[in-house]
Design goal:
Length: 120
């Protein structure tokens, strides 16, 4: 690709994505709210590798309900906030994974297996 073609392509992309409307959007809570909220699902995904004994069943349940409710609100506002919706979809999936691990550990023999493995 020639240098001239690269320059034209770069200018075209910058004009399309780096404009007043994009800057205006990035300076709103419609953008920064979901971005800052992504800390919750990132932490949940990170915690999927931790010991099941550390999982709080009540907190995991609360976070699943919280994210399910806010998925609805993310689509109820105008304009629809797909970034917030995506954040809560990821969080619901991660927290559901934590909930499944919690249930397996406490109700389907995971705790007993862990204790037996410690005794060996």
């Amino acid at each position: 690709m020639s240098n001239k073609v690269q320059q034209v392509a770069t200018k075209s992309l910058m004009a399309k994505y780096l404009n007043k409307d994009t800057l205006k959007y990035m300076l709103t809570t419609h953008f920064w709210g979901p971005v800052s909220n992504f800390g919750i699902p990132i932490a949940a995904l990170y915690d999927l590798n931790k010991d099941e004994a550390l999982i709080s069943g009540s907190m995991t349940s609360a976070l699943v309900v919280y994210s399910a409710v806010f998925m609805r609100y993310a689509l109820a506002v105008t304009p629809k906030n797909y970034l917030l919706f995506g954040c809560h979809v990821i969080n619901t999936a991660a927290q559901t994974g934590q909930g499944i691990r919690y249930i397996k550990y406490h109700y389907f023999g995971g705790k007993e297996k862990a204790e037996a493995a410690e005794e060996k």
